[in-house]
Amino acid sequence: MSSCISVEDLKKHVYVLRLGHRPQRDRRVTTHVALVARAFGARGIYIANVIDKNVKQSVDKVIKRWGGSYFEVIDGVNPFEIIKQYKKEKSCIVHLTMYGLPIDKAITNIIEECEKILVIVGAEKVERVFYELADYNIAIGNQPHSEVSALALFLDRLWQGREMNLCFPDAKYYIVPSAKDKMVKRVER
């Protein structure tokens, strides 16, 4: 595992703001948004306006087994207060939408200009105000698609593939790459 890097090696602080989470409908997708955020190098996720203990518990189980204890799920937040906080810290607000600028047109600017990033992803129709508050409205293609895939593609472009070598020092288990088998090893401490 000599190619391992830590989240600190990525040199940027990224959090995700999940809008429009509906617990009965979106629990699984919001959990997947959080898992992609964690696996692809984000530091945490804010869930706007809703407290959902099930999402937190699911992500915490993954963290306990696979590592990433730095990652946090913060639910029930006021999205405008979070955006205001990030703007005050001179962070970049990036809204992922199919209506924005193509990612290839904006990613270089984001990489060069943004050290701290709040990535906004919606569950249902996102209010116009979030488009206006964002520094970048970024399209991952211009067809209907999943916010999970949009987040994964954005983070991969942001880190330029380096996140594929993320390792979690507090992991209890790790996967051994294999062409045909499913191999999971317990970390010997």
Characteristic key phrases:
single chain; 189 residues; Alpha/beta knot; six-stranded parallel beta sheet; two-stranded antiparallel sheet; 6 helices; 25% strand; globular
CATH topology, anyone? Alpha/beta knot
The side-by-side strand order for the widest beta sheet comes to 3-2-1-5-4-6
Helix segment count? 6
User: Can you identify the CATH class?
Assistant: Alpha Beta
Mind telling me the CATH superfamily name?
Answer: SPOUT methyltransferase, trefoil knot domain
Distance between the termini: 16 Å
* Overall 3D shape: globular
Spans of at least 5 consecutive residues with low confidence = none
Based on secondary structure, the structural category is alpha/beta
What's the rounded overall pLDDT mean? 94
What composes the largest sheet? 6 strands, parallel
Description:
This protein is of the alpha/beta class and 189 residues long. The protein has one domain (7-186): Alpha/beta knot (3-Layer(aba) Sandwich). Helices cover 38% and strands 25% of the residues. It contains 6 helices and 8 strands. The protein has helices at 23-39, 53-66, 79-88, 103-113, 128-133, 147-159; strands at 13-19, 44-48, 72-77, 92-102, 116-122, 136-139, 173-176, 183-186. The strands form 2 sheets. The protein has a 6-stranded parallel β-sheet, sandwiched between helices. The longest helix is centred in the first third of the chain and has 17 residues, at 23-39. Belongs to the aTrm56 family.
